[in-house]
């Protein structure tokens, strides 16, 4: 069966994945309408499901609230719009007029359907893109808008996709909530009638929510039940709006940006939305998770075939008191444990002695590294480890040479206070000159010192985003900031193909499919308390795979919570993702060092399963109703097991606990 089939007479298209189908059509008004999303269909079956719109029963209803592929604000659509446009004369709305369609083959094993429309009166063109692949049930959707006229228009809302669900007896929504140090707390609750909005207005993905959603009928569990889910590939402000209607329907729309912003679109300009990827499964939440993990490993992450190294980070040992001799001593202890990547954290540059100064001055502190970072990098490499460094390129301290030279480079509103958070301000990455400056010093730093790894941090949210006098002002800034950030990361990858990058924003504040397409892993949370990490990692892993989840073993009592748990428990929790060590090794006893070395060796024996295999959850964190989970030492590792992935055929495809050691 082809991936994309079409009936020209009926105006029906059928997208086929290994286990599912997605069908759409042109409805009686010319708008793209939804037919079905679920188990496999033939084109003939899809045609039988393509029924005309029902007549309205009330003059108060307008167009159907759910059921369109991209509902437009057309004057009689009263549900959440996916497309809102304001033309130069003040007229709003979009009237669908179908132009053409194409089926592209962007890569081997993939096909992409493009449906092109134009407004009947105005020179606005809209193209809906659907990409399917022969190795995944994930469907990628995006929207491209082009101003084909000679006057400026404004995009009030331009979502990537709207997704329609079948009528169900009940609906349950799954998503994550949280805050700094308590990210990705999984919630599953009945979907209320009306509209439920998940969003970030902070300029980053945020600690407080994440741009993915799952919906089921309230009956799904780990092994059974139909689940519909979608995830947005965007690292700035975003919004997902789920709707449940009184007549028993539901759907959701997702896209970049938050309410109240207006994106200008000049003559000849295009806006391309980020990808919103969707997935259906009838195998419950476990099958959904495994399908997302396989898709992200195969089609999102850059170093998709690499096993990540065991990492050591010096932050907890050194804080801001970083110098060459101290880091060399830590590196020697880390190498003796079997660590493969040594990372120097904050404090290595400029006048950085606390979080009050130095950000923006990205040269090694001469009093701490008199010959630069070269000798330390060479020492780490001689020990058989890779070498990495912490950076925060988007930020500046007012007490820095950079700020004194370029006070206009930060986000600010003229005449209003410049609000400092964590004693820092945000550089305006939407300006190309600032993005170019960041790329310049970053690529030189990596090249000059042979760095293998960057921990890219961002320790505050965006605020006071404005640029008076420029069309669109601060509204255009929200989008350009993210696209320029992506541009810097893309250029760094092109300059240094072997470089690994970790996305961090005070922990898990910037984790999404957009940034993971340009980085290798995510710092999951600044909270390294092993017991708290069970819930954080459980929510993270609903969508994102273990090979993207950084997890550290740190000292006790934990610096954040004050809790003390055994070293083996801390290791077992961290071994469920990308194992890292962040404790002060100069204070570990000989017994602790020997135990740690043994656990690092055990992780290396099973990391191909953890990082590349398929994860099966036995139950969530917090439950103690199984004998095998009766003690803290066994809970994390026995809540899940991994099967060898298809890309590691030598691994027996049987249950294997990562507690194998």
From TrEMBL:
UniProt xrefs under InterPro entries: Aldolase_TIM, Alpga-gal_N_sf, Alpha-glycosidase_related, GH, Glyco_hydro_27/36_CS, Glyco_hydro_36, Glyco_hydro_36_N
Pfam families: Glyco_hydro_36N, Melibiase
Protein residues bound to substrate: 180, 345-346, 422, 455-459, 504, 526
Domain Glycosyl hydrolase family 36 N-terminal as annotated: residue spans: 30-258
GO term, biological process aspect, one: carbohydrate catabolic process
Reaction catalysed by this enzyme: Hydrolysis of terminal, non-reducing alpha-D-galactose residues in alpha-D-galactosides, including galactose oligosaccharides, galactomannans and galactolipids
Active site, renumbered: 457, 526
Superkingdom classification of source: Bacteria
Entry protein name: alpha-galactosidase
């Amino acid at each position: 069966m082809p991936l994309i089939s079409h009936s020209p007479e009926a105006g029906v298209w059928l997208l086929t994945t290994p286990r599912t189908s997605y069908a759409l059509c042109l409805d009686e008004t010319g708008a793209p309408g939804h037919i079905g999303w679920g188990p496999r269909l033939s084109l003939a079956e899809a045609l039988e499901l393509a029924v005309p719109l029902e007549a309205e029963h009330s003059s108060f209803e307008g167009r159907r609230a759910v059921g369109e592929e991209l509902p437009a604000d057309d004057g009689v659509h009263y549900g959440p719009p996916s497309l809102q446009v304001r033309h130069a004369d003040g007229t709003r709305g979009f009237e669908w007029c179908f132009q053409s369609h194409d089926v592209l083959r962007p890569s081997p094993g993939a096909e992409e359907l493009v449906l092109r429309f134009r407004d009947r009166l105005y020179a606005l063109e809209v193209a809906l893109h659907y990409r399917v692949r022969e190795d995944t049930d994930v469907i990628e959707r995006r929207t491209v808008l082009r101003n084909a006229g000679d006057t400026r228009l404004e995009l009030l809302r331009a979502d990537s996709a709207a997704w329609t669900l079948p009528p169900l007896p009940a609906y349950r929504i799954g998503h994550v909530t949280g805050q700094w140090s308590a990210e990705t707390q999984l919630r599953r609750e009945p979907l209320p009638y009306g509209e439920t909005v998940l969003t970030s207005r902070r300029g980053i993905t945020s600690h407080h929510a994440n741009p993915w959603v799952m919906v089921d009928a309230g009956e799904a569990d780990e092994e059974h039940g139909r689940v519909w889910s979608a995830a947005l590939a965007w690292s700035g402000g975003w919004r997902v709006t789920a709707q449940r209607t009184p007549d028993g329907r539901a759907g959701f729309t997702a896209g970049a940006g938050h309410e109240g912003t207006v994106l200008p679109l000049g003559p000849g300009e295009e806006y391309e939305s980020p990808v919103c990827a969707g997935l259906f499964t009838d195998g419950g939440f476990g099958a959904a998770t495994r399908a997302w993990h396989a898709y992200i490993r195969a089609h999102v992450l850059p170093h998709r075939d690499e096993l990540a190294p065991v990492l050591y980070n010096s932050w907890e040992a050194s804080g801001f008191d970083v110098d060459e001799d101290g880091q060399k001593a830590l590196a020697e202890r880390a190498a003796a444990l079997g660590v493969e990547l040594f990372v120097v954290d904050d404090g290595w540059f400029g006048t950085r002695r606390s979080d009050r100064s130095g950000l923006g001055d990205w040269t090694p502190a001469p009093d701490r590294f008199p010959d630069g970072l070269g000798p330390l990098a060479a020492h780490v490499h001689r020990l058989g480890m890779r070498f990495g460094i912490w950076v925060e390129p988007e930020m500046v301290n007012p007490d820095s040479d950079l700020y004194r030279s370029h006070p206009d480079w930060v986000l600010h509103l003229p005449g209003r206070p410049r609000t400092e958070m964590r004693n820092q301000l945000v550089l305006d990455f939407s300006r190309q000159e600032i993005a170019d400056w960041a790329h310049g010093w970053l690529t030189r730093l990596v090249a000059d010192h042979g760095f293998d790894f960057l921990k890219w941090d961002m320790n505050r949210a965006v605020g006071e985003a404005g640029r008076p006098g420029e069309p669109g002002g601060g509204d255009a800034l929200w989008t350009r900031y993210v696209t320029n950030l992506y541009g810097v990361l893309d250029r760094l990858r092109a300059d240094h193909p072997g470089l690994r990058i970790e996305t961090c924003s005070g922990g898990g504040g910037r984790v999404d499919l957009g940034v993971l397409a340009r980085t290798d892993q995510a710092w999951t949370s600044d909270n390294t308390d092993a017991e708290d990490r069970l819930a954080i990692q459980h929510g993270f892993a609903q969508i994102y795979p273990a090979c993207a989840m950084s997890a550290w073993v740190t000292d006790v009592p934990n610096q954040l919570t004050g809790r003390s748990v055994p070293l083996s428990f801390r290791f077992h929790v961290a071994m469920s993702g990308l194992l890292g060590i962040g404790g002060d090794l100069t204070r570990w006893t000989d017994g602790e060092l020997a135990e740690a070395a043994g656990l690092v060796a055990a992780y290396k024996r099973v990391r191909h399963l953890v990082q590349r295999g398929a994860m099966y959850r036995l139950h969530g964190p917090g439950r103690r109703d199984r004998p095998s989970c009766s003690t803290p030492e066994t809970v994390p590792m026995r809540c899940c097991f991994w099967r060898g992935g298809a890309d590691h055929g030598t691994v027996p495809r049987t249950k294997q606990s990562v507690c194998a050691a």
